[in-house]
Specification:
about 750 residues, six-stranded mixed beta sheet
Length: about 750
């Protein structure tokens, strides 16, 4: 039986009435996204029509999911809220703090020793507040959620940007910062701007070397890393229904890479099969009873241009395998063009490592298809030319693929199986030789490939592809190899071709595991003690941020003018810094150290206006804080792209930065800044970015009149005495201005507001 089956049945019990009412209000057929949104309004039954991309709306999500790196800060904030128990079903998953280095057994044992303090903290807080706890080794949050908690038509928020993976089971699953999660865990409404809708019609059917991964790689090439911002992407069509549930999950997972609020698919037989295979026939039966409400109306899919803000059509029968990268997940190249592009751009052709798995591509289907290629190495007398690693998504998947012989197949080609954790995908990879910073090429089936993302080496060129394509390229060891057309030379000097990958959507013998790794919370956690050592380097209890003093911010200094791409990886790096995710003071020592200074094109080297000397960004900001000098950060387009990590907002807030002024924001990061009491502002005129000089002093002239829809005016005083007044737009509503005035959204919760 499924977890929280009564909650699911309750949600289904109100869905028909709410959707019917919404359809009546809007006066036209509904997309699946609209059905789920209107069925989860905080007020209950809908009584008004919301404008896409404009209206802020309060929602009531069904559940919350947190991974260990973000759960630390989220739960530290929740402890401030003064609640005895979480108000909605919530889970914590330990997957980020396990470094990949040797093999699964060795790496997991080391992580349990090194991060035992954090795991114990998360376990005890979960036990106390009624939170389901998945310990280290249980698996990656998104795979575990898909296997256990996701359900068609549900709404979930999670403290990880790839929470959207659950869209593969027909949910609206949305990545958020920890403060948003605390709102919902505390029994409060969750606010979101009503999204725009992008419809993607999939015709034809995948076959041969083409995989679900190639769909989202193609979409990323079309929409770019910011083309989905503020929108839900809804997939439909014969190609969608012909695809596996876990394949749908892969597509939704990488929707985070186009900036989408979330992505989803309508309920169909593939979801029904997956639910039954993972022991949730009761959910499938409940979904079957209201099936028409768990997909878009027929009229919508028949004439999508009338109901979506944008429509894209992809013929899966014509879709070619893609490789995306390097350094950005939207640089899409069909495999037939890769040789040409690689030579033109001087990308190293020799592949050093191929890596498959992660939350994006670790399903049984993915692994079985990759194993079918690995099996051909011995059958065709080949030798794998690159290193090869596998990261299973959960203990259930790992145990099942071991039982069915796939791990043995991988071992025979010299592969390394890492722990059921995020590992290299998030930079938790102790890659031998990475410190030499040699230029090299790797291929992986992960979701992100930003500079330094996997191994910390800025000269590692990472390309994203399907597990099948990555496996083939690892066997060949050559970026220019096209398995659809090219031959390999085997150990006998013979030319051979790899056969097309094959595999099973679901395990014929069913899923299994001796110990999935779940810890249920105590029914009464009031007696559970949560202890945080005041001298700990890993954990630190939070103090409330100071409220706004009601005055204009004056004599502020420019901390940094970030040049080009500035993701949350640039603002708050992961990798070795993950160990400090529960200690705000220590983690703040990585603030903006990856951002490029527009004035000298260097990272972590900015001018301290108090001394005239150049220093590390955190050091300069700590000097400003000690001197009582406010500061602002200036950035480019899509600032805060990537992970949901709210540390990227909390660190500047903690160190005294008052505002972030950019050309445009990624959705989650803008919300995180607002939640922490920061000013998140955008240039009314983007060219004003060029007017800002290194030694500028900044004055807000009308912050005392801060109001919804009214731009703010900022004076930038230059060294020569001249002044530029720059108009800054914002998207704050009355409630969000309240967060700013109170010092943070959490301060209002703690005060009972």
């Amino acid at each position: 039986m499924a977890f929280d089956i009564e909650m699911i049945k309750k949600a289904y019990g109100t869905m028909a009435e709410r959707v019917d009412k919404a359809r009546q209000l809007v006066g036209h057929p509904l997309t699946l996204s609209e059905k789920i949104l209107y069925a989860h309004l905080w007020e209950g039954n809908p009584n008004q029509v919301f404008t896409r991309g404009k209206d802020y709306v309060d929602f009531a999500p069904d559940r919350v999911a947190c991974q260990d790196a973000t759960a630390q800060m989220a739960l530290l904030q929740f402890m401030h809220a003064g609640k005895p128990k979480v108000a909605v079903p919530t889970t914590v998953h330990c997957d980020h703090l396990i470094q990949a280095k040797v093999d699964a057994k060795t790496d997991l044992a080391r992580a349990k020793t090194q991060s035992n303090e954090v795991f114990d903290f998360l376990s005890s807080v979960s036990d106390k507040y009624g939170i389901g706890f998945w310990g280290p080794g249980a698996g990656i949050i998104h795979q575990v959620v898909l296997e256990n908690y996701a359900f068609p038509g549900g709404m979930m928020i999670g403290t990880d940007s790839h929470t959207v993976n659950a869209g593969g089971l027909g949910m609206l699953a949305i990545g958020v910062g920890g403060a948003d999660a605390v709102d919902v865990m505390s029994g409060m409404a969750w606010e979101l701007k009503f999204p725009k809708l992008i419809g993607i019609k999939l015709t034809g059917k995948l076959s041969g070397w083409t995989a679900p991964k190639d769909v989202i790689l193609k979409v990323a090439g079309i929409l770019t890393v910011k083309g989905g911002t503020g929108a839900i992407v809804e997939y439909f069509g014969e190609g969608a229904t012909a695809m596996s549930c876990t394949g749908k999950g892969t597509i939704c997972n990488m929707g985070a890479e186009i900036g989408a609020t979330t992505s989803t698919f309508g309920y169909d037989d593939s979801m029904r099969r997956y639910l039954k295979s993972t022991g949730r026939a009761d959910v499938a039966d409940a979904a079957d009873a209201i099936a028409p409400y768990l997909t878009g109306d027929d009229e919508v899919y028949a004439d999508p241009e009338k109901y979506f803000d944008q429509v894209i059509e992809i013929n899966l029968s014509e879709l070619e395998p893609h490789l995306n990268g390097p350094f950005t997940p939207d640089l899409a190249t069909p495999i037939s063009k890769m040789k040409e592009e690689a030579i033109k751009n001087d990308w190293p052709l020799q592949i050093q490592v191929g890596l498959i798995g992660s939350c994006t591509n670790s399903s049984y289907e993915d692994i079985s298809r990759a194993a079918s290629l690995a099996k051909q190495v011995s059958e065709k007398n080949l030798k794998t030319k690159a290193q090869f690693t596998i990261t299973p998504g959960s203990e259930v998947v790992r145990y099942t693929i071991e039982r069915d012989g796939f791990i043995d197949t991988f071992n025979k080609i010299g592969a390394t199986v890492f722990a059921n954790a995020c590992g290299p995908c998030i930079g938790m990879w102790d890659r031998e030789g990475a410190e030499k910073e040699e230029r090299n090429t790797i291929v992986h089936s992960f979701n992100r490939n930003f500079s330094k993302r996997a191994d910390g080496n800025p000269n590692t060129l990472a390309f994203v592809g399907s597990p099948e394509l990555v496996t083939a390229l690892a066997i060949a060891g050559d970026l220019s190899f096209n398995p659809l057309t090219d031959k390999l030379i085997n150990e006998d000097g013979e030319e051979v071709m790899l056969d097309e990958p094959t595999g099973n959507e679901l395990p014929p013998k069913g899923f299994d595991a001796e110990d999935p790794g779940y810890q249920a919370p105590s029914k009464d956690g009031s007696g559970v003690q949560v202890v945080v050592n005041p001298t700990s380097e890993r954990l630190q209890l939070l103090a409330p941020f100071e409220p706004w003093d009601g005055k204009n911010i004056t004599n502020a200094k420019l901390l940094i003018k970030a040049f080009g791409k500035c993701t949350t990886d640039h603002i708050s790096m992961a990798g070795p810094w993950l160990r400090f995710r529960g200690h705000l003071d220590n983690i703040s020592n990585n603030m903006l150290i990856g951002a490029t200074n527009a004035y000298n094109q260097k990272t972590n080297s900015i001018k301290n206006q108090l001394t005239g000397q150049y220093d590390a960004v955190p050091a300069v900001q700590r000097a400003y804080k000690a001197a009582g000098v406010p500061s602002i950060v200036v950035g480019d387009h899509n600032y805060g792209e990537g992970s949901s990590r709210e540390h990227a907002a909390m660190e500047p807030r903690f160190l005294g930065v008052k505002a972030v002024l950019v050309k445009s924001f990624a959705r989650i990061h803008e919300t995180n800044l607002k939640k922490q009491g920061m000013l998140a502002l955008t240039f009314a005129n983007e060219s004003d970015y060029d007017k800002i000089q290194e030694n500028d002093t900044i004055n807000f002239t009308d912050l005392v009149d801060f109001a919804p829809g009214v731009p703010l005016n900022l004076e930038f005083k230059h060294d020569d005495g001249s002044v530029d007044v720059i108009i800054a737009n914002h998207t704050y509503n009355e409630g969000q201005i309240g967060w700013f005035k109170a010092g943070s959204a959490l301060n209002l919760i703690a005060a009972g507001n």
